[in-house]
Amino acid sequence: MGQVDDAGIPFALLEVAGQRWKATIDTGFNGDLELPLALGLDVNAEYFGRGFSLLAGNQVLDEEQYLVDFPFDGEVVRAVATFVDGNGILVGTNLLRNYELTVDFPARTVALTRSS
Fold this sequence. Notes:
Largest sheet: 10 strands, mixed
Number of helices: 0
Strand order of the largest sheet: 5-6-7-4-8-3-2-1-10-9
Structural class: mainly beta
Radius of gyration: 14 Å
CATH architecture: Beta Barrel
């Protein structure tokens, strides 16, 4: 599914809106997604409200959250996302809650397996 880059960061390439996006797997982020502003229309973003995200180092962010239709693992999932000015996707642990995540740093591979 993915790789570990030269900086030791696990990522996958995800196709969204006809384009491949680098999606960092962030185990220190307990939300669903952080998306580039450019994807807002493509994922049918619908304002959900303000919410808090807990990041690594106990950093808490208060930000606007949106419900989105996001293509993931061969289907479209309803997820909660925030939007930032940037060109990458951040995948949080809540989106992965039904998966086993395996990061093999020596082999530089990332695998997601749906749990039963």
